[in-house]
Write the structure tokens for this entry.
Amino acid sequence: MLLVGCNTHQSALAPFGVEARETYWLTWSLSAGAVLIALLVAVLAWRATHSSEGALNHKQGMQLVLWLGGVFPTVVLTGLLLFALPQMRPMAAASNDLTIRVEGEQFWWHVQYEDGTRTPLLAANEVRIPVGRTVVFDLTATDVIHSFWIPGLAGKMDMIPGRTNRLVVKAEKAGTYRGVCTEFCGLSHALMAFDVIAMEPDAFDAWLEAARRPVKAASRTTSGAKLFSDYGCNACHAVRGTEHDARIGPDLSRYGTRASLGAGTLEPTAENTAAFIRDADAFKPGARMPSYPSMPADHARAIAAWLKELK
Ligand code: CUA
């Protein structure tokens, strides 16, 4: 159990966000209080069984009930309430802060960066945020209820179809944090993760600017690009800067820069990508992506090679 504390990638015990830090201290305070009370009860029980005095008389008994059954819980619970109430207030966000809309899908994350001025930038299964700035996450779902949790940065928030829940996050340190779905949402619930990359504000602005540009135009003429359309991949997936702009499946613009395939399921190597294209259901049971068992292996490899070029 102690070793779990060494995991800084996905751990509520290693907080690097304002809200996660508050939750961390609340957890330790409650645990310390619980241990203290348990010790107190143990001491009282020991005294009661080892005391040479006889049974309490009626008046002493009533006093015991009054103090331990009335006064003590009232004081402890009031103290806890006063301690916890300020921490339940959602963090305030300035109006000009970055808003990122995330929709939970079976079983991936549709990400949309909105800075209010231009058309939103679409992405999938990876969220980048600037360090030290408050980021507002508008969270919803398209199919079933999911739950959005980045243990190192903030608490959990449900994603409910037809409703938008708001989570305000402020990262304190640059790094990569892992987020997960924490509401059972179907067969591949456990295969629904995402990376949150907290970047220095300047680096983030530069990345956002670069990400808005179309992907490399030269790669559009390869056989993989043609097969991508021939097999109808473009009916679901978008690649920015090409004519493919469907929004049913994950956006594949800059797939070549992704750290994972299938929302944290596999390493995004060319072989894994080709295997996933032919038989998505084998890697993500219940996923909406159809399998293509009759697709020749070299076709899958060509599409995978083209996708890896998208940067
Ligand atoms: Cu989405 Cu569990």
